[in-house]
């Protein structure tokens, strides 16, 4: 018995625990916000970025939902990474996201009904978000629980940040509002900017302009940081 | 890990175990929360009906009455004035509240001879009568529904409320916004000759302040053509089913 304990102690000494927020771990959290952003660099999650960014509020709600599902999902997948048969890992990942999302949906419906009404569309969209499957595949399957958690939160936050930037411009130029508040005056009563002949650009409300807005952000980002430009 | 996770037998066992675990977890969640969710839905329906007849939150007219007061206010303004309308006849019963328009639609689809039960709620507020009709239709991605309140002459809309399950945020989802639904207030469902027309959600209607009340049309939402058409069809078909009954009342 004594020998066994000694062995265990030795093992611990050999591998000192990494601090929770080591430089490497912090990078997992901050990298996806800019230089490895899931939308502008990896071009993932574009579909939902186009669909819901016509207004700021739903974009923020969506960001929070994805941060939650991504964080928990990555942890669950990371916990199962060694016992999961690789042949059916995609199915397992899908089941994990779907189950998670349904449970969240049900709990919200029971205890926070109004919030669940606001989330209704996004709950379904979360399941189809390719960032989630992407991070499961690329990160959680090969990394520990804590790292996967940080990676999940980081990527979802990077996704959310882009949603909010795109939604800000689309709502401002498309509807002349921010969070539904008329910041440019009233288009019907012709006050504020509208008195000078300004008109809302209805095209901004439609999906193609979301794609173009994302394109402009990618352009700005890559011209500021040349290292991001891929060789062809 | 010590064991081989690539073996077929292991894969099958893992899949079965996973399905069992996830399935029972979801079944447990669903059955333990069902009562609460149903109660929430009932409250929401009461809030919706009250909203359509203009009973709203004391501070913000674009918000529902608070959930905890919904039952009390519903009893006060609607109470037992709940009817089931079959063709031209109405029967006073509280069962009207539990009739779902969707289920009635399904029954008609399965059996064309089925006589659908149409729920009708009559609200009384400040000496005015509101005939509240529940509606259900299809938007772009999924179901849309709403409540329309008609006046004593069964021809002018006095209040409306629309909601949806999965319309696009910022586009079709805007049918829940005040600037869309308030356009319905004052609109007539009959034309000048007295024929039933419904209300059309119309592109190029060019009436943003909704000053023309007799054109049977309201302004459409930009970028939400299909959802708007869905609302048109829902309002038109939904109210039409009550016309035989309203005709008998008029006589």
From TrEMBL, chain A:
EC number: 7.2.1.1
Transmembrane segments: 60-79, 91-113, 119-136, 148-169, 202-220
Entry keyword DNA repair: no
Membrane topology label: Multi-pass membrane protein
Quaternary structure and partners: Composed of six subunits; NqrA, NqrB, NqrC, NqrD, NqrE and NqrF.
Function field: NQR complex catalyzes the reduction of ubiquinone-1 to ubiquinol by two successive reactions, coupled with the transport of Na(+) ions from the cytoplasm to the periplasm. NqrA to NqrE are probably involved in the second step, the conversion of ubisemiquinone to ubiquinol.
Family designation: Belongs to the NqrDE/RnfAE family.
Coiled-coil segments: none
Domain of life: Bacteria
InterPro entries: NqrD, NqrDE/RnfAE
Subcellular localization: Cell membrane; Endomembrane system
Protein known as: Na(+)-translocating NADH-quinone reductase subunit D
Catalytic activity: a ubiquinone + n Na(+)(in) + NADH + H(+) = a ubiquinol + n Na(+)(out) + NAD(+)
Record carries keyword Cell wall biogenesis/degradation: no
Encoding gene per record: nqrD
Keywords tagged on the record: Cell inner membrane, Cell membrane, Ion transport, Membrane, NAD, Sodium, Sodium transport, Translocase, Transmembrane, Transmembrane helix, Transport, Ubiquinone
From TrEMBL, chain B:
SMART domains referenced in this protein's UniProt entry, alphabetically: FMN_bind
Membrane topology: Single-pass membrane protein
Keywords: Cell inner membrane, Cell membrane, Flavoprotein, FMN, Ion transport, Membrane, NAD, Phosphoprotein, Sodium, Sodium transport, Translocase, Transmembrane, Transmembrane helix, Transport, Ubiquinone
Catalytic reaction list: a ubiquinone + n Na(+)(in) + NADH + H(+) = a ubiquinol + n Na(+)(out) + NAD(+)
Role description: NQR complex catalyzes the reduction of ubiquinone-1 to ubiquinol by two successive reactions, coupled with the transport of Na(+) ions from the cytoplasm to the periplasm. NqrA to NqrE are probably involved in the second step, the conversion of ubisemiquinone to ubiquinol.
Subcellular location(s) of the protein: Cell membrane
Any one Pfam family match given in the protein's UniProt record, by short name: FMN_bind
Superkingdom: Bacteria
UniProt keyword NAD, yes or no: yes
Cofactor(s) the protein requires to work: FMN
Oligomer and partners: Composed of six subunits; NqrA, NqrB, NqrC, NqrD, NqrE and NqrF.
PANTHER family: NA(+)-TRANSLOCATING NADH-QUINONE REDUCTASE SUBUNIT C
Family the UniProt entry places it in: Belongs to the NqrC family.
Listed transmembrane segments: 12-33
Enzyme Commission number(s) from the entry: 7.2.1.1
Protein name, UniProt field: Na(+)-translocating NADH-quinone reductase subunit C
Gene name, Swiss-Prot/TrEMBL: nqrC
Modification FMN phosphoryl threonine, positions: 225
Enzyme category, top tier: translocase
Organism ancestry: Bacteria, Pseudomonadati, Bacteroidota, Flavobacteriia, Flavobacteriales
Positions of the FMN-binding domain: 139-242
Main location group: membrane
UniProt cross-references to HAMAP family, sorted A to Z: NqrC (MF_00427)
């Amino acid at each position: 018995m004594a020998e066994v304990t000694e062995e265990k102690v030795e093992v611990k000494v050999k591998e000192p625990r990494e601090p929770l927020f080591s430089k490497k771990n912090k990078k997992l959290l901050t990298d996806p916000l800019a230089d490895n952003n899931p939308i502008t660099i990896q071009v993932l999650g574009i579909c939902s970025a186009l669909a819901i960014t016509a207004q700021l509020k739903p974009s923020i709600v969506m960001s929070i939902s994805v941060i939650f599902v991504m964080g928990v999902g990555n942890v669950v997948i990371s916990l199962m990474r060694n016992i999961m048969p690789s042949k059916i890992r995609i199915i397992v990942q899908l089941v994990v996201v779907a189950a998670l999302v349904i449970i969240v949906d049900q709990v919200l419906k029971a205890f926070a009904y109004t919030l669940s009404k606001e989330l209704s569309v996004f709950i379904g969209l979360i399941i189809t978000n390719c960032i989630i499957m992407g991070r499961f595949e690329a990160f959680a399957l090969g990394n520990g629980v804590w790292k996967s958690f940080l990676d999940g939160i980081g990527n979802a936050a990077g996704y959310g940040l882009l949603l909010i930037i795109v939604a800000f411009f689309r709502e401002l130029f498309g509807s002349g509002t921010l969070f539904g508040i008329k910041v440019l005056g009233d288009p019907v009563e012709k006050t504020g900017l509208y008195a000078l002949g300004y008109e809302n650009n209805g095209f901004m409300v439609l999906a193609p302009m979301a794609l173009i807005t994302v394109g402009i952000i990618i352009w700005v980002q890559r011209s500021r940081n040349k290292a991001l430009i891929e060789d062809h | 890990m010590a064991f081989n996770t690539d073996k077929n037998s292991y894969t099958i066992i893992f899949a079965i175990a996973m399905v069992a675990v996830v399935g029972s977890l979801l079944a447990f969640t669903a059955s333990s929360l069902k009562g609460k969710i149903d109660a929430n839905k009932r409250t929401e329906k009461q809030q919706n009906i009250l909203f359509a007849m203009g009973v709203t939150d004391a501070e913000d007219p674009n918000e529902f009455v608070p959930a905890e007061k919904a039952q009390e206010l519903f009893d006060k303004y609607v109470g037992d004035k709940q009817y089931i309308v079959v063709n031209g006849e109405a029967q006073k019963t509280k069962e009207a509240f539990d009739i779902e328009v969707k289920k009635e639609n399904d029954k008609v689809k399965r059996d064309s001879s089925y006589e659908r039960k149409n729920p009708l709620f009559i609200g009384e507020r400040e000496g005015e009568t509101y005939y509240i009709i529940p509606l259900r239709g299809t938007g772009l991605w999924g179901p849309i529904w709403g409540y329309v309140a008609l006046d004593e002459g069964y021809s002018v809309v006095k209040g409306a409320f629309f909601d949806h399950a999965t319309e696009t945020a910022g586009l079709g989802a805007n049918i829940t916004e005040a600037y869309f639904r308030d356009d319905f207030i004052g609109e007539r469902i009959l034309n000048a000759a007295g024929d039933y027309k419904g209300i059309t959600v119309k592109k190029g209607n060019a009436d943003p302040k909704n000053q023309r009340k007799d054109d049977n049309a309201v302004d459409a939402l930009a970028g939400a053509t299909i959802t708007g058409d869905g609302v048109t069809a829902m309002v038109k078909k939904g109210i039409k089913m009550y016309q035989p009954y309203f005709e008998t009342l008029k006589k």
